[in-house]
Amino acid sequence: MANQRLQISIFQNPKKIAQYMSNPKKLPYWTVHRAIFKKEFQFYEIRTDAKGNWKSILLDIEQRKLDSNHYEVTFLWNQGRFLPKVVFCISASDSDQKQKPASSQVHLNLSKQISQKKFKTLRQLIRTELKILKNTLEQKLEDIRPRDWKQLQAYHLMMYTKDYWS
Fold it and tell me: How many structural domains is the chain composed of?
């Protein structure tokens, strides 16, 4: 199956976007990942496994500067043999590089190598996360709809049920 590209334009320079996205303490402000904590210089996320047991999963976040206008932010959850990985690309918009504030494109390619139902859910969640990220970085918090917050919170809670993994 082919991947699907999800993207959004944010009026902010790519460096600031990458710095915000790669800060684990900021994840609860724009993603479904709310249970993030730090222990001995590492960040973890609390989740449940397929049996409903609580687990602390190592979260690695890497920010790479490709050049002055291009960054990558990679999230990797180390769950043993299963390593979910998400890579966001952040690029200054070519047509807007002289515009102040700068406009940037944030995108990721969502793999369709999961069930159709999970793919549709994940696609909608990431779109919502990107909208919240945009409004947060553009300081337009009043434009974030309550239903967007509720959607992320509902999914966050669902991640703690053993049915989520089946």
Answer: 1
We report the CATH number of the domain holding residue 131 as 3.30.530.20
CA–CA gap between residue 61 and residue 77 (Å, rounded): 9
Query: Within 13 A of 113's CA, how many CA atoms are on the CB side?
Result: 4
pLDDT tens across 109-143, in order?
A: 887 777 788 888 889 999 999 999 999 999 999 99
70-84 burial, b for 16+ CB within 10 Å, e for fewer? ebbbebebeeeeeee
List, edge to edge, every strand of the sheet that includes 70-78: 4-10, 104-110, 85-92, 70-78, 54-67, 42-48, 36-39
Domain that residue 106 falls in: 4-165
Whole-prediction pTM: 0.86
